[in-house]
# Entry
Amino acid sequence: LEQRVYGDVWLRDTGPLVVREADGTRIARRFGFNGWGGKYLMPGDQEIGAEIARDAGLVVTHTPMILEGGAVDGDGTGLVATTAQCLLNPNRNPHLTREAIEAELAAQLGFARVLWLGDGLINDHTDGHVDNLARFVAPNRLAVPEPTGKDDPNAAIYADAAARAAAFG
# Structure
């Protein structure tokens, strides 16, 4: 049994994102990973995604754009939700504009439409991953939490996310 050592196995963020090409072939996409904006760099985080994909017999392609899996959530129809706090954060891709990020999401993952939410949850060490804030539960149906009470520190964030999703259509 081959043994590999990794500092972290948070695979939602460090693992490959698998897409199906037009001919039905599954391809593993590997984006750059910088330890959630340089906060948590651990041994093996750069390699684990490609190793998993190769072990599964998948062709692996690489793109330098920094992207963790939890930063995006797709509905299966080409619509993806993300937060500006994460993907537009200078600690991820300071050289890329919103339009360039949208183009890369389309080219690499097939997302034709991007629902940009604002901030993620307060004190989220991932800088606002959408998987902590909202999730698609069906095509074009986004679930957003409601505040637990008047003192919920994320109440304004939930309201903003719900408003942006409603305005998006």
Remarks:
- The first helix runs from residue 11 to 14.
- The two ends are 51 Å apart (CA to CA).
